[in-house]
Amino acid sequence: MQKVKKWAIMLLAAALSFALFACSSKEPGGDTASDTNADENKTDTIKIAYIVMAKTDAFGTSMEDGALEYADKMGIQVDFQAPEKETDVEKQVQFMENAITKGYDAIILSPADSTALAPVVKKANDADIPVVLVNNTMDQEALDAADAYVETYVGIEQYAAAALAGVYASETIPDGKTCYSEGISGVQALDDRLNGFRDQCGNFTVVASQTARCDRNEGFNVMQNVLSAHPEMNVVWAVNAEMGQGAIQAIEQSGFSGRVQVFDFDAAPDDLQAIKDGTLAGTVAQYPNLQAEAAIQACLDVLDGKELLAHTKTKASLVTAENVEAFEAGEDIG
After folding, report:
1. pLDDT in tens, 109-145
2. Domains along the chain?
3. According to the model, what pLDDT value does residue 4 have?
4. What is the pTM of this model?
5. Which segments of the chain does DSSP mark as H helices, in order?
């Protein structure tokens, strides 16, 4: 009886062993294998903190869409973060510090100030978390003073991109009297945009140059005041789309429609419609979705041990009435 019981136990153990072996040997599509892979992938997923100046305009939302789409394609996690205001440097510092504390694999940063964020970049360096800049550079002297470094800057050549609009304006407007709508102080990219246009238009008379802090309402107010003081003005260069749209609204409400040619930066949906309506002469497109993809890929390359160039260049184009439809259709306009 004991012998029979012993054999029964042995047979049962063998059967259980075979069943366990069969379960664990399922094809990759089987339940057990996919569950295990899912757990491993969840543990090994690369996490990137993507910190920008703001996403209150079409440029920010387009960059976020591009980042999340590319992250999904690459099978990684990207957490897109932005302060409510573009000037909130302290909030960006908090985002950076949180990313460091939480142990993100990499950080993408579009700095709201070209110098103030250098110390927190140093903190990321000390934590062995690579930092990639996107859309805006940082002051190299500030980085050096903090003993900090970034892996690369991903984006357009801001000066050269703005120069596209400046050359066009200089060649098509014989007697320019210009108002420059400046951006946020301390942001290198916005300074480069201002100078890139202005340096091509040495034949123009400058009637005003004032900051509107990249805000549509401030752009509107500044333009109303300038039009009142300088009704002879016939050219506006705004270093972002929000200020450009504010300028257009002020021009229309002040009865100057058709007398002032406005140029701006970003090629937001409102810009494209304004070009078709004849209220915007041109806008510089900088393809935020492509910048997002390139920034994420730069992080992946660094984590893979690759060395990057100091500037990972992305393209920019000038959109005017001549090519706006081609641009909207996704064609390459140069």
Report:
1. 999 999 999 999 999 999 999 999 999 999 999 999 9
2. 47-155+288-303 (3.40.50.2300), 158-285+321-328 (3.40.50.2300)
3. 36
4. 0.82
5. 2-24, 31-44, 58-74, 89-102, 118-126, 140-145, 158-172, 188-198, 216-229, 241-253, 269-277, 288-303, 324-328
